[in-house]
Write a sequence for this structure.
C-alpha cells in the first residue's frame, strides 16, 4: 500500500515537473541560448554545457523546495497552490497581451549577448595566442591542461544557461513543486523536461526559434499552471500526492 502510494507520488511529481518545465522553457531565454549556440558551435558541446547547468539548477531548486518541508505541509501546500494560480494568471495575461512575433526580440537579445561573449573569447585567444612564452610558464600550463577537458564553448554554454535560469520562472516553479511533491519525481521530471527542450533547441536550432509562437506557449503555460492550482482543490494536502 505505502509502496504504491510512493510510486504514485513519484509519477505525479514527475508528470507535474516535466509538463511545467516544458511550458516554461519553450521559447524562453535558455531555449534561445542553446538554439543559437548550437548553430555556431559543436552541438554536443553546447548540449552538454547547457544540460549540466540546467541539471545542477534543478537539483538546487529541489533542495530549496525540500528545505521548506520542515514547515507543516498544510501551509506549504496552500501557499504553493496560490503561487501556481498567480503564475498561471500572470502567464495568461502576458500571453494575451503579446504580439504574435514576441519571441523575436528575445532571440535578438540572446544573439547580441552571444556575439559579445564571442568577441571576449577572441580577445582572450589573441592575448594567450602565440605570445604565450612571454607570459611565463606558470600561467599557460594550467590553462592548456584545462582546455583539454573543458572547451571555452562548454564553459560559455554552462555560464550563460546557468545565469539565465537563475530566478527564472522554471526555477521558481521547481522550488514550489518540490515543496509539495515527491522531490525525486520533481528532480527527474524537471531534468527530463529540460533535456527535451534543450535537445529540441540544439537539434532544431533556428527553424524552431523562428517558428515557435511564444504567445501560444505562454497561454498554454498559463492554463497548465491554473490546472495545477485547480487540482489542489480536490486533493487534500496529506493524501500522499
Amino acid at each position: 500500500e505505502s509502496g504504491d502510494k510512493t510510486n504514485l507520488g513519484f509519477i505525479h511529481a514527475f508528470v507535474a515537473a516535466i509538463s511545467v518545465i516544458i511550458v516554461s522553457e519553450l521559447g524562453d531565454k535558455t531555449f534561445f541560448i542553446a538554439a543559437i549556440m548550437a548553430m555556431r558551435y559543436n552541438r554536443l558541446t553546447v548540449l552538454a554545457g547547457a544540460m549540466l547547468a540546467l541539471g545542477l539548477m534543478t537539483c538546487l531548486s529541489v533542495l530549496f523546495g525540500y528545505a521548506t518541508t520542515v514547515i507543516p505541509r498544510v501551509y506549504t501546500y496552500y501557499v504553493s497552490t496560490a503561487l501556481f494560480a498567480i503564475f498561471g494568471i500572470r502567464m495568461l495575461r502576458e500571453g494575451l497581451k503579446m504580439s504574435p512575433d514576441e519571441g523575436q526580440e528575445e532571440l535578438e537579445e540572446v544573439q547580441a549577448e552571444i556575439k559579445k561573449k564571442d568577441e571576449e573569447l577572441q580577445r582572450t585567444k589573441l592575448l594567450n595566442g602565440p605570445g604565450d612564452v612571454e607570459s611565463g610558464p606558470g600561467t599557460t600550463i594550467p590553462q592548456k591542461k584545462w582546455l583539454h577537458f573543458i572547451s571555452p564553448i562548454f564553459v560559455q554554454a554552462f555560464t550563460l544557461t546557468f545565469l539565465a535560469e537563475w530566478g527564472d520562472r522554471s526555477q521558481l516553479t521547481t522550488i514550489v513543486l518540490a515543496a509539495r511533491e515527491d522531490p525525486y519525481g520533481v528532480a527527474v521530471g524537471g531534468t527530463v523536461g529540460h533535456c527535451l527542450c534543450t535537445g529540441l533547441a540544439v537539434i532544431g536550432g533556428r527553424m524552431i526559434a523562428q517558428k515557435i509562437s511564444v504567445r501560444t506557449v505562454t497561454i498554454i503555460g498559463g492554463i497548465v499552471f491554473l490546472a495545477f492550482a485547480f487540482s489542489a482543490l480536490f486533493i487534500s494536502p496529506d493524501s500522499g500526492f
